[in-house]
Design goal:
442 residues; alpha/beta; N Utilization Substance Protein A, Chain:P, domain 4; OB fold (Dihydrolipoamide Acetyltransferase, E2P); GMP Synthetase, Chain A, domain 3; 4-stranded mixed beta sheet; elongated
Length: 442
């Protein structure tokens, strides 16, 4: 009766914690072995069987029949064995004897120890359930409630699980308060000593993808595909879409009637502007669309190096590059082509500069220019088109000296450009530097 009541108590706790009955039996078996080890210092010769349905708990201790007991945990005299089990009269010295242990012998110690052990095992099981659940849901969108906000991130609760959204995964313009409802995508799940670390994100490209999948049934059905995404979370995004059905316009389907679909996504992303680009097999058309709303006059494309020079009207160059280089960078990431943007006059001036003789550039001595000339490298464009390894291999110029030549040429080109074009503010000047060098300046 005691055993059944004990099992019922633990069963009720297990039901509250959503622990399966089979798992409960394993926990109780581990519990009694743990109590035995705490009581006697060793449980290696003991076993426990718990039958939840019948309410039975059976604990066995295997001992050896000896004449005189040295270690009562693993030894027993024949007289004691017969007293406990009359059938042991047939046993001899050295024979094994299985002693049945009544759980009631542990008394109140069992209750106190059991509570602590059971609570810890339940926490472990809960953590394991949470890990397995969320590890299988990476890439899904979840909706949770903000539990607390800290400097390093926002913590979101969904039932028993706590999810973390680091600052790097947040939309910078958003502010989160306790009690706010948050929608995000599950990015990763890792095991830590404190339990599963579930990372969620609103800044990840996949979050934008899943939002489109939710709002545009044709994407979920596979009729329309999103082939590429680039984002500045909360500010601007570009996506490339293509249709597997010629009758369906992919851009129109994503926008929706009167913009209903795209507006729902924009609102979710704190008014993040989204450019939807129709896919094209032709690189020139695809890059032109990716640079929208800017319209390039000409494109010079090197497919082998995934490089493109885009020419714009001089007065429209700042719009083409975008604030802090945003438009040109998004287009580059979207198409996987490094894109440099120039005004027409600016590019013509650069082309003229590239016809300048290497010998005329400050910092390049006569000896170096002569060595380069012997390799048919006479002007700036020859040097820029040449392979650095070939120059080092076929000349007496060291790598450090060649690096200095490249730096002198770069300084010459930038100086000429800056002298030819004056800009009114530092932000635009930074954008022009970005388009020349391809490196973002912070």
């Amino acid at each position: 009766m005691v055993n059944r009541e004990l099992i019922e108590v633990f069963s009720e706790i297990a039901r509250e914690k959503n622990v399966e009955r089979s798992e409960l039996a394993t926990i109780l078996e581990e519990l009694f072995l743990y109590v035995i080890e705490k009581e006697y210092g060793d449980s290696s010769n003991c076993s426990c069987i718990v039958n939840i349905d019948k309410g039975e708990i059976e604990i066995y201790s295997e001992k050896t029949i000896v004449e005189e007991v040295d270690d009562y945990k693993i030894e027993i005299t024949l007289a004691e064995a017969i007293e406990k089990e009359p059938e042991a009269i047939d046993l001899e010295l050295g024979d094994p004897f299985v002693e049945v242990i009544d759980p009631r012998v542990f008394g109140r110690r069992l209750v106190a120890t059991a509570k602590q052990f059971f609570a810890q095992r339940l926490r472990d099981i809960e953590r394991n359930y949470i890990y397995e659940d969320y590890a299988n849901r990476i890439g899904e969108i979840i909706i949770g409630v903000v539990h607390q906000t800290q400097r390093d991130g926002v913590y979101v609760n969904i039932e028993q699980a706590e999810l973390r959204m680091p600052r790097s995964e947040q939309i910078k313009t958003e502010r989160y308060r306790r009690g706010d409802t948050v929608r995000a995508v599950i990015k990763s799940v890792e095991v830590t000593p404190k339990g599963p670390d579930i990372i969620i994100s609103r800044a990840d490209n996949h979050f934008l993808y899943k939002l489109f999948e939710l709002e545009v049934p044709e994407i979920e059905d596979g009729i329309i595909e999103i082939t590429s995404i680039s984002r500045y979370p909360g500010e601007r995004s570009k996506i490339i879409v293509r249709s597997n059905d010629r009758r369906i316009d992919p851009v129109g389907a994503c926008v929706g009637m009167r913009g209903s679909r795209i507006q729902a996504i924009v609102r979710e992303l704190s008014n993040e502007k989204i450019d939807i680009v129709n896919f094209s097999e032709q690189t020139e058309i695809l890059i032109t669309r990716a640079l929208s709303p800017a319209k390039p006059l000409r494109l010079f494309i090197d497919d082998e190096k995934n490089y493109c020079v885009a020419l714009f009207e001089d007065e429209g160059l700042d719009a083409a590059i975008g604030r802090n280089g945003m438009n040109i960078n998004l287009a580059s990431k979207l198409t996987d082509y490094k894109i440099d943007a120039y005004g027409v006059n600016q590019y013509e001036r650069i082309q003229e500069d590239q016809k300048t003789s290497i010998a005329e550039i400050e910092g390049v001595g006569d000896e170096i220019s002569s060595l380069l000339s012997s390799m048919d490298i006479e002007v700036v464009s020859d040097l820029l088109d040449a392979d650095m390894d070939d120059i080092l291999k076929n000349s007496q110029i060291s790598e450090n000296i060649l690096d200095g030549v490249y730096e002198a040429v770069q300084n010459f080109v930038e100086r000429e450009v800056n002298e030819d074009f004056e800009y009114k503010d530092d932000e635009l000047e930074g954008d022009v530097s970005l388009s020349l060098n391809g490196d973002e300046e912070e």
